[in-house]
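User: Hi! I'm working on a homework problem where we have to compare a predicted structure to a textbook description. Could you give me the structure for the chain below?
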Amino acid sequence: MIRSYAGKAVITLFLIGVMLSVLLIKIDLWSKIILGVSSLFLVSGLIHVFLFEDLKQEKKTFRPFRIESLFLVFGMLVTYAMSMIFGVDAVIASAMIGVLAYVFLKDHATAVYCGSFAGMTASALIEPVMMVGVVVLLIIVYELTKDMLKGFGGKLGTIGMVATFSTVVLLNRDFLLVTLPQYDVMVLIVIALFGAVISYVLQHRFKQNAVFASAGPSLLFALVSIPLFSLGAFYSAVFFSASFIGMSDRTRLKNVYWVILTGLVLGILYDLMTPLFNGAGGKLGTLALLSALIVFGFEKVVTRIFVRSKE
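Assistant: Happy to help. Predicted structure tokens:
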């Protein structure tokens, strides 16, 4: 029971805190309206999942030292090392680890993929010796929350970001200040739609594993776009983030039309959140989970209104 409450509190406070952080830095009216309405649907989605669904994790004990912990740490350290030591783009590193985990460690691919998102943390933000804190927090948060929000894409990345974000806060460090690229918002949104739909179709139409459905297309997109285009790295991150939406199952996003709407929400949130939390691993997954929960909450509100209008 304590585990259940702790996990729900961690996820709820973190997601709402992220939305409030973006809301506070935006000064234009339209951004505030979009974020305010989105936050209401986010709360609706969280309420429905955490209060109206039987998550069944209350019957399970808190055991942070399972075999999965080793694969979590493995995914994180390999991704972090590829980026820091060999200069591999973080998206390529994480997506490659996801594909390799699917091929060689299929039974543990989810844990490896989750760890890889924390490993996308920039070494300029959290130095190697400080990653010990991320390891500990990652294992704890994974154990607390792995049975929650089942079927929502982006949950694994959110677990990674809770660990990296908490480490940054505990170490009293500042997120990286980066020069924002001059990107086209419409191109960003189109790529978000493209990434979400491809991953979803691969998983549900072609019956591919969710990890591969996300990592495979993302790796291919990054390998092609990064060498060819000046903004290839930026747009490959957008595609990667959107691919997590496609990992959602049909109990959360019923069909491709809801996926398209979720991709649109992701594109808007990505644009609004670009200046924040730079360097923190798991940011891309957090954006995907926020988008999926917002659309899920919206669908529940619309359904309730429609049912009442028929009574």
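For your comparison, note the following. The two ends are 37 Å apart (CA to CA). The first helix runs from residue 2 to 25. Good luck with the assignment!
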